[in-house]
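Late entry, written up from scratch paper. The run itself happened at the end of the previous shift, but nothing got recorded in the book at the time, so transcribing now.
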Amino acid sequence: GLSGTLPTLLGQMTALSHFNVAVNSLGGTIPTEIGRWSAILEVFIHSNSFVGKLPSEIGAWTSIRRFFSRYTGISGTLPSEIGAWASIIEFGVSNSALSGTLPTEIGAWTSIINFYVQRNALSGTLPTEIGAWTSIVDFRAFNNALSGKLPTEIGKWTQLGHLHVYNNALGSTLPTEIGEWASINDVRVHNSGLSGVLPTEIGACKSITHFYVYNNALSGTL
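Output as recorded:
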């Protein structure tokens, strides 16, 4: 497979629409020059050994639809500039070394369908702005250090099928607004510090097939 680093000369490929170097032995940092890919639609760099942060320059990829860099050494916080990715539908930076909080700017991703940031070191609360993700189907942020309650705004996720936020420190209880999730079939919030009682509104989730809330501090009756 490929080895070495991504050359800065890649930035000269300004007409590039698809870039895939996944499952190789590439390393080093992501060159800032790739921010010049103004026509880019899909980037797959997962399963490599990259290090360092994602450069803020990639915020210029305003046409990007799919981005995957899972199973890499990408670290630090996600750049707020990616909030400009108005067309993004799939985003995956799982199994890496992300830290800090999710930027509020990603609330502008109103076309997002699949969002995967599990198995990182993300912290803080989920931004309320993601309530605008009315097309979201699959949301996975498990195995992080997220804290605070789930925002009530996610009740607007009426297309949601999968919510995996287990192994965090969310606290509080599930918001009553989840009763609006008509398409939900898989909720996993076990081992997340939940407390209080389960909202009766979950009874409206008629399509649910998997519901995991074990190893929390919930009380009351079902």
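The first strand starts at residue 3 and ends at 5.
(Scratch paper discarded after transcription.)
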